[in-house]
Write a structure and sequence with these properties.
Helix content: 10-25%
Order of helices and strands: EHEEEEEEH
CATH architecture: 2-Layer Sandwich
Number of strands: 7
Distance between the termini: 40 Å
Shape: globular
Strand content: over 45%
CATH superfamily: START domain
Mean pLDDT: 89
Largest sheet: 7 strands, antiparallel
Strand order of the largest sheet: 1-7-6-5-4-3-2
Radius of gyration: 15 Å
């Protein structure tokens, strides 16, 4: 299993940050590894909501259908996705930090089938992808006021 964890601070309130990230179909706005996403279930986002992301990984673009499996408004959202090659569990936690928020993003990726053979390389690739996504998320949640 590969794991990626990061902490991000933002001037957005905890509620605003939660509202932004709970719409997981918008991940392409901050994750350079995601080409596009869409929400498969009606709003509002809650337990059982589903999203599909078309993500690039190891030279391929694969659809991943994420389902919200844990949900506490403004505090925590847990998402799970699985396809023939990988199972993904993402947990995003939100805490108030001064006037803004601190976000803890914890992603776990388990290769499946033949993908398990390259597990060490898989973990390295996942770390690089996670670093790029985290940097994109930092920029997205911390807009430059001079821009």
């Amino acid at each position: 299993m590969a794991r990626y964890q990061t902490w991000i601070t933002t001037p957005l309130t905890r509620a605003a940050a939660f509202a932004e990230l709970s719409r997981f179909d918008r991940a392409a706005e901050w994750d350079p590894g995601v080409d596009e996403g869409s929400m498969l279930t009606p709003e509002p986002v809650g337990l059982g909501s589903r999203f599909v992301l078309h993500a690039r990984f190891l030279g391929r673009t694969l659809p991943l259908v994420y389902e919200v499996v844990d949900f506490e408004a403004d505090t925590r959202i847990g998402l799970r996705a699985e396809n023939a090659f990988v199972a993904s569990d993402d947990t995003i936690r939100f805490e108030t930090l001064g006037a803004g928020a601190e976000i803890t993003y914890d992603a776990r990726l388990r290769p499946k089938g033949l993908a398990r053979i390259g597990s060490p390389l898989f973990a390295l690739a996942f770390r690089r992808i996670g670093d790029r996504a985290a940097e994109g998320l930092r920029r997205h949640l911390n807009p430059d006021p001079s821009a």
